[in-house]
Amino acid sequence: MKHPKILALALTVGLATGIAGCTPASTENEPSSSPSVAPTTATPTALAPSISHEHGDAVDDPAKIELAKQAATIMTTWDPTKDFNRTAAEMRARKLMTRERAKEVIAPERPATGAEWLTAAEKKATSKPTVKLMTEHHEQDTVAITATWQWVTKDGESWAGEGKQTFYFTFTETEPYKIRDYVSYIQ
């Protein structure tokens, strides 16, 4: 290099100019004709996005969708001849949840009742769910799944289950994902 001192001087001047240009001049002692506005800071309202999906919308993450569908399928697969109530299926899905959430799944001491459950038990039928992603649900970091079911006997008799169950799942932030929380509603 022929002129190392010139290069060093140019870099120093450029750096100093750049820093000075990025630093606002003090205006504390100058009168201002416009009102001052305090800067606002945004408080994050959503969890950080997953590592594999930058925008953090759980509905765009295939792994979270698949986990939600798997959980909803397990939670709506019942065998009334073996399951004391519907919560037995939720107990089977605890392996897909965080430890904290799994501890919250507690089966009630009362048995399931109702015509649908009792008929299925009498005919020794098992529920066969169909689960679908609710695409009209747009809450960030939540996957909504709707489950409907058919009751099927070993000899092939089947009939539609009554109603549908909708689940709303949230997940841990990193893979392998676990269900952090969920709620469900039977319609």
CATH topology of one domain: Nuclear Transport Factor 2, Chain: A
Give the helix proportion (percent range): 25-40%
Which CATH-level-2 architecture of one domain? Roll
Strand content: 15-25%
Relevant CATH superfamily of one domain? VirB8 protein
Helical/strand content category: alpha+beta
> Uncertain segments of ≥5 residues (pLDDT<50)?
1-55
* Biggest sheet statistics: 5 strands, antiparallel
| SS element count, helices | 5
Q: How many E strands?
A: 5
Gyration radius, rounded: 29 Å
H/E element sequence: HHHHHEEEEE
Protein name: Lipoprotein
Keywords: Signal
Task: Give the helix/strand layout.
Elements lengths: L3 H19 L39 H14 L11 H6 L6 H5 L11 H8 L3 E8 L9 E10 L5 E3 L4 E7 L7 E8 L1
Antiparallel strand pairs: 1-2, 2-3, 2-4, 4-5
Keywords: Signal
Protein name: Lipoprotein
Using brief descriptors, characterize the structure shown.
187 residues, alpha+beta, Nuclear Transport Factor 2, Chain: A, 5-stranded antiparallel sheet, 5 helices, 5 strands, disordered N terminus, signal, Lipoprotein
